[in-house]
Amino acid sequence: MLCLIILTKTQFLVNRAKLAQGKVADSNGGYLKPASLMYALKWDCELESAAYIHATACSLQMSAPSTRPGIGENIFTASNRDLNHITMAELATQIWWTVPTKFNLNNTRYMEMDADLFPAWSQAVWSETSRVGCYSYACPNGRFLVCRYAEGGNIIGKSIYRIGVLCSTCTHFCVDDSSSVYYGLCVTSD
Q: Ranges for the SCP domain (predicted)?
């Protein structure tokens, strides 16, 4: 299987950087607070391979968390099975990123009620997640996108992201070039 790397410089990563910078519009006409720690996501071929296995099963549902300990997951389906991987990732990103304008997200702690409201968005922006792998597959009933994340997020009682001065709690390196699409994101050493 090829390692596709479908999220490079897409709106998915740009949105994470905008969130880190405090430039994502909220539901009150303002902006979400900036993040002191928000990792740039690195593509992980093993996560992509696991996403491939689940996508090709065509369940069109989330996998059981017990089958992927410590790994987060998002899914997205489209009725047009002829869409390509990039288009599926872009459509999913557009849908997932409507959440900040629909819900009051002043509390960044992930609560039990959030699991029903916006699990895809919160997993996509979980600040301590540093790796992602996605795969989309043409199933009989439509196209099915699965994204897997490490470290997994959506942990009840934990922060979706840390609010604070941009990059102030990065443990390794911060992209401080304001002309970069990754500006404000932390980078791991591996």
A: 7-157
| Helix-, strand-, coil-residue percentages of the chain, each rounded to 5 | 30, 20, 50
The residue ranges of every structural domain in the chain are: 11-187
- The answer to whether 99 and 123 are in contact (CB under 8 A) is no
User: Rounded CA gap, 62 and 42, in Å?
Assistant: 22
Q: Which pTM value belongs to this model? A: 0.90
With a cut of 60, say whether residue 1 has pLDDT above it.
no
Topology of the domain comprising 11-187: Pathogenesis-related Protein p14a (3.40.33)
Q: Are 74 and 92 in contact (CB under 8 A)?
A: yes
